Amino acid sequence: MGTPLLQINNLTVSFENENNSxxxxxxxxxxxxxxEIRALVGESGSGKSVTSMSILQLIPSPxxxxxxxxxLFYNTPDNCIxxxxxxxxxxxxxxxxxxxxxxxxxxxxxxxxxxxGDQMIExxxxxxxxxxxxxxxxxxxxxxxxxxxxPEKAINKYPxxxxxxxxxxxxxxxxxxxxxxxxxxxxxxxxLDVQVQKSILILLKELQQETGMGILFITHDLNxxxxxxxxxxxxxxxxxxxxxxxxxxxxxPEHPYTKALLACRPGLYP
Length: 270
Ligand code: ADP
Ligand code: MG
Known about the structure:
Distance between the termini: 25 Å
Number of helices: 9
Bound molecules: adenosine-5'-diphosphate, magnesium ion
Shape: globular
Helix content: 25-40%
Radius of gyration: 19 Å
Low-confidence stretches: 266-270
Mean pLDDT: 93
Largest sheet: 6 strands, mixed
């Protein structure tokens, strides 16, 4: 066990209206250590995004209701904050800086009427005390670090002028600009073709190794994390059904659902 960074204990999330209540996540336990890549895997609707969005209070409550549980984020190895109970100003100071997020669809986070550079510069200036000139330099440095083609030209482009993979790299650069301790990736490669998907995973792993950040990587496709994650949590209908090191999970899956997920793609596993 490494040093804990994020520890979700008994998280239960329900959606309620006058007539009924639906529990999307049930007593979920999950942790991410410093320097660790944790995969959270489950089919569509299993509660992955509800879990990831709960970390930064991104689901309005109501309709979401949090009956029990805690989401502990360790600022330092011996000081933690319960994000479920944190004030909006506490969350604001953590979001983007200590914890950053990237999503499946970069266009939901990129502004179509601003150039990629302007958006990057804005984000950088939010996190770091830099002049516009300094922030521009930092934008180019970050674009280079995420291997965007021709960074000096890319900063003058609008998001629609970039391919899906390049847009996702802009998102990653923005997420990295706050130097996060934890990066949450909610299906960041799902919309990309296999080769691009692979190159994004390689990039994320490189960034993880350079910075020592922890990653919570969410996907419906267990195959994707085989050579990427250190540990895997399998979610089924809002409940954790299995958790193990990636190696053991692939070698000796215990739960029928995990076996079924593995059986979906025979031959692709190491
Ligand atoms: P996924 O694993 O595909 O990311 P989600 O976490 O988005 O799944 O959703 C889990 C379940 O919670 C789904 O049944 C979804 O319909 C339900 N759900 C998610 N958000 C809401 C909401 N705001 N109101 C009601 N139900 C929701
Ligand atoms: Mg989702």
